[in-house]
Amino acid sequence: MTRIKKFFSKHDFSSVVASLIAIAAGLILGIILLAATSAVPGTDFPKGIKLLFQGPFTTGIQSVGNRIFYCVPLIFTGLSVAVAYKTGLFNIGAPGQFLMGIRVSLLVALNINSIGKPVQGVFVWILALIAGRLAGALWGLIPGALKATLGINEVIICIRTNWIAANRFSWVFEPRTYLHGTGTGKSGYLIKTSVTGNGTPSWGFGKLTDNSRLDCSIVIAGVIAILLWLFRNKTSLGYSRRACGLNKFSAKYAGRKEKKNIRLARALAGGLAALGGCFNYLNPAREIKFDSAYASLPSYGFDGIPAALLANCNPIGVLFASLFRRYLSSSGTALGAAHYNKYYADRIIAVIIYRSGFSRFFIEIYRSFKQKKSNSMSKKLFGMLTEGLLLTTLPAPDGLRRVETGETVEDSKNEEAIVSEEKEGEVK
After folding, report:
1. What is the pLDDT of residues 249-290, one digit of tens each?
2. What is the pTM of this model?
3. Of 171, 280, 305, 414, which sees the most CB atoms within 10 A?
4. Of 340, 364, 382, which marks where a domain is finished?
């Protein structure tokens, strides 16, 4: 039993409880909404509940594989937000870092032809992945460097870098050489990496889900999440970053390099967001419409924020929170196809995110109250030991007043000398 308590305490079990409370509150709201609209023609309550909980399984195993594939960029943007937040930073620049990763990785993949050379195609994919990750890291480093050196708020800089990245994307891919010809029926779409023979290896995952888009990216995302957790909790550098996030002044007083940690955290966060874009669009089956790429910022960058908050910025928690977020999106699609309100899933997600913050708030209050109660009990016990036990049992040292009589050892010696003198006088 003691080991279980230590395990839960070590891994912050309270945050898990907070997330579960938030999820339960959101699902209860969804059930209430479905019950309230059961009178709409063509809908009924049991059917709505079934669609809500089945999610992507309503349309077959292929849909499950595709949903997991689209969950990968959400995982990486969530990890990006979590890494920055634990260092005391708020990464709202994930959309721009996401786009920069796509931009550089596609430039590498579309300009190196490896058709008929599968081994070369794997190396080109790795090269494109590394290039895109470095581009995102450098793009994320810009707000970190400005904050560390000049003290400029990273949120303001991230908003500007987001739109600069969007414009840079449109400027690079505007030439017709990167677009499908009008005769292909893909007007306005970028050329897929399959045209040049490059793309993310599938390792047979797509066949497991009826030839879906699922590839090895989900495995790599899981491995990276575990490595980030180990880095944060088991290394001195990870501890240093967490210390800066908790209290930068105390961390600085303890010898931690605050500015260095800010720059490194921003670069790492930018690289993670870029990896999400790289994995998403290096897939041979993935298509991207050119005009929608720069007309608005990609939602993946912003969706990573609620995924990180729901997981309390725990890297492994982000993995499951992202999967659950995509699961609910599939439920919304299924409800919309069955003549229900498709925005029910969005309302559930909103309640979950909103409730997660309040759940942690009440848990922190409870933990604070419990800590205060424990401290008061300790003080009371210490007082009882010192006043009622120690002072009555310990022998009084020489020169100190005795507890029982109020005398000192020197006073008793003087009294004995006086008595002896009186006795000598009587004898004489």
Report:
1. 555 555 566 777 788 888 999 999 999 999 988 988 888 776
2. 0.76
3. 280
4. 340
